[in-house]
Amino acid sequence: xxxxxxxxxxxxxxxxxxxxxxxxxxxxxxxxxxxxxxxxxxxxxxxxxxxxxxxxxxxxxxxxxxxxxxxxxxxxxxxxxxxxxxxxxxxxxxxxxxxxxxxxxxxxxxxxxxxxxxxxxxxxxxxxxxxxxxxxxxxxxxxxxxxxxxxxxxxxxxxxxxxxxxxxxxxxxxxxxxxxxxxxxxxxxxxxxxxxxxxxxxxxxxxxxxxxxxxxxxxxxxxxxxxxxxxxxxxxxxxxxxxxxxxxxxxxxxxxxxxxxxxxxxxxxxxxxxxxxxxxxxxxxxxxxxxxxxxxxxxxxxxxxxxxxxxxxxxxxxxxxxxxxxxxxxxxxxxxxxxxxxxxxxxxxxxxxxxxxxxxxxxxxxxxxxxxxxxxxxxxxxxxxxxxxxxxxxxxxxxxxxxxxxxxxxxxxxxxxxxxxxxxxxxxxxxxxxxxxxxxxxx
Length: 443
Known about the structure:
The chain has 15 helices and 15 strands.
């Protein structure tokens, strides 16, 4: 069951800490079965309720999971182990297509906007008690959202998309609740859900986003929330088009109690329209990050939604960070007002490379997907073998395990660092790695 590892402690917090220490050190392996509560209580000389409280804490932290009579065991992916740990070490000389970072050449220069923000701040320094969102920024953001059909609602700013998603989930759900999440999907979201003590219900996706039948199955299985990527889905590049949005809206209208969260991190890098899903259920939110269009270090995401959700998000935020720096807000305003990013130009920059890679792979009989954004998803039979062969050929790609729960294996290729001249040789290397011949050697 536990091998030689001994759980210790006389209080619930100590028992939980002992289990976490074993998981962190590797002495308690993923999948290790924990002792029944009464058995451990007898061994430690404590009340069974104390062990029950410890196990409950561990479940809420995403360290263990309980499956009825089968007992409690260490999660296969403890929340303390981020999916980025499944990445690969990129050897010297290899081209890194695994990071998921945007093309630096397509990001705006920040020196001028930051200087303008500093001048504005000097004229009116931020003080406690001011509105958390700069009024001019709120007005421009609301106008943009309304033009895209997003229902009217209050606004908040968070420190990136994941921060916004976490705050919305925490506003409504409690440990043990289930969340329908795209599979394959964003690895950080797949880490976040269990870290909050919530359960992941994987939802199959295709090039149009979450499949309605898969969403329906997750809702029937008790999902309290649905997380959808609107555009440039990571890792598949899926986009929720008009027909898919209509099907999902029809489905969600029959489930008014479900919390719907839309992740629109593709805003600014995709030139295809948004088809929002919000407003059909009592509680909903749309989170729009600036990271892909303006740079990962500009830690800003707009959040809008129904009044109750936003009131809870902003209220909890006041008791934590308080607000997102006005210096960053002024910087984003300057970028917006000067038109520093043209979504059509950025979308074309990624699209030409992405489409070329998909076409070159198709010409070699390899299926690949990447409708929008900066990533291409390639189904493979054996991720480890393909990643290893590509490394030997000088290309580092991301193993699909970072993005999967139940979906089939694959690899993710980020096209940001490709040049047009790179594409044929990369496609040839991928085709050889996917279907190696007896004459192919990798050392």
